[in-house]
Amino acid sequence: MRWLLDLDRRGLCSVRPKEPLRFWNTWCVGGCAEAVISPRSESALGCIRKMTSEEGVHAFVLGEGSNVLIPDEGLEGLVVLLRDDTSPPIVEFSSDSRVEVQVSAALPLRKLLNWAVRRGLSGLEFAVGIPGTVGGAVAGNAGAKGRSIGDLVTFVRTIEEDGNVRVWMGNELSFSYRKSGLSSGRSWITSVGLNLYPSSDGDIRQRLKHFASFRKGQPKNAKTAGCVFKNPPGGSAGMMLDSAGCKGLRVGGAMVSLQHANFIENLGDATAGNIIQLVDICRDRVRDKFGVNLELEVRVLGDGPSPPEG
Description:
The protein is built from seven helices and 18 strands. By secondary structure, it is of the alpha+beta class. Strands 6, 7, 8, 11, 12 and 13 form a six-stranded antiparallel beta sheet that branches. A five-stranded mixed beta sheet has the order 1-2-5-3-18. The protein has a three-stranded antiparallel beta sheet with strand order 14-15-16. GO terms for molecular function: FAD binding; UDP-N-acetylmuramate dehydrogenase activity.
């Protein structure tokens, strides 16, 4: 991949060969990638997308690495990091009732929420406590308690397999529970348009408190990837896992959180294999007790394209 070395030499991206991926995900597990790349511009990202597609090289996009499990054997191919962008949102339109902003996909979701709150803009309160980047949130339609980021999306700007830019309208993206039309990962998200709504500071703070109350029982300062399983229709994965006696179950260095049964913690020396074994045990217990087959919310990376993760 001489083109990659050339991009690095020209300062258009940084390349870390044979990089351990445990440094780039919130579970802190997983083997190495052939290289971890940090593009420095949208044009560089387009070149990477085009060349990996033409050469048949697997490429995985990672944001902050939440909501993802990387195998112990690592990943065959490249990992492209889209994270840590501190560029402020750009106001595209503003009125008394609506403000449309364009946001970098690499901006952490928590920073966008803080930006909106400081400016008296409502709509994102449900995102309090949700880890990851804006791009990862849009690809997986992150949300809480019936609200999701897809409700706010006006457009999404992506890099396609040919390296060209495409702009999708929000109504083209088929947002549903923890899924969108961009979940396949074939389109790499670079920026997002969102509708936000002017509101009083008191009302925004009240809504933040409301959504934060649902996260009080979740583990803090622990190595997790967020919720492991999606909620089944009409039910709660966490309650089912708790009722099935999953809290405290342990395989190697991986343990089901004692605070919330839908979280698996890395106690320090867990492997991806430990986590997968624990996932299987928990899923079997819930199936045996409730007849429900829980679906993973975290994505296990491997062959093929990947959406932006967290």
